[in-house]
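Figure caption, in words: inputs first, then the predicted bound structure.
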Amino acid sequence: MRIDLHSHSTVSDGTDRPEVVVAYARACGVDVLALTEHDVAAWLDPAAERGWRASLEAARTNQVTLVPGTEISCHWWDRGVRRSAHLLGLMFREGEALREVLGTVLHSRSTRMETMVRRIVADRGEVITLAEVMAVARKAAESDRAEPVGDPVLGRPHLAKALAENGLCTYEEAFGDAWLGSGGRYYVRKASVPLEEAVGLVRESGGVTVLAHPARRGYLVPESVIRRLADAGLDGIEANHPWHDDADRSRLTQLAQECGLLVTGGSDYHGAFKAEDVGDRLTHPEVYFSLVALAADRGGLAPVPPGE
Ligand code: AMP
Ligand code: ZN
Ligand code: FE
Ligand code: FE
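Bound structure (adenosine monophosphate present):
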């Protein structure tokens, strides 16, 4: 049984439509897939809802079990400096508190995109427009569809692609300090949720939480903060992520054991935006069943088997 608990589609900043990601999961021999779009849930946004329905249909055809989830933009404080971190919330139910918090982050993703474009234009002239960024985000989602699918969750990858298409830099260079890297010339922060608050909200909504890629530069979470999160109810650490090397993985696995946390894996598939394939990193079946049992205990959602 091959289980990948981290992936993205055109609902957020992946380049494959959700039904394509699911069919591709089957082609890659993956039996269980969590779709974890950034800061959105099917019940929060019409485009995400349409995407989820399309992925359910594809899951039936391709015999894939789907785990509902979200990758939440979070932060922690490092001596007065706000640091970004990503938290995977899986199998949580619809709820007012989460709606408000995720809604704020989603809204700020749009306004910060406008600000980033405005800053580039102020500095360099009319080299890019917001319409071009929106076109990048919509293009993959809508190709050969009769009905519009709605606006994707906007992210820096969309702007990076638009900059590359306009010949201003390469896609990779766009994430450097000259452009959109954190601390970069045109980088604008978006709203985010304190890690401990996000852990609590997902738990209260019946779900489980996993700290995503905590050894990655830019999303690094130190051991002291992980220990605090474990006390606050965190369930797992995504030690097995393409951005982590063997040393990261063993250090995080050791820490998880000490803190009583589960160790998960996921590919963080983004289609053409990243090199990894679905299933390139996996979660052990025992860990997966523990997470499913935790969500069931908390009154959360169950994974959707292909028969339903
Ligand atoms: P945002 O959430 O809009 O701030 O954009 C963050 C997204 O950009 C993440 O999901 C990453 O997948 C992607 N990203 C961040 N840094 C890099 C990088 N150095 N190279 C490629 N993609 C990146
Ligand atoms: Zn992403
Ligand atoms: Fe992430
Ligand atoms: Fe991700």
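The chain has a mean pLDDT of 94.
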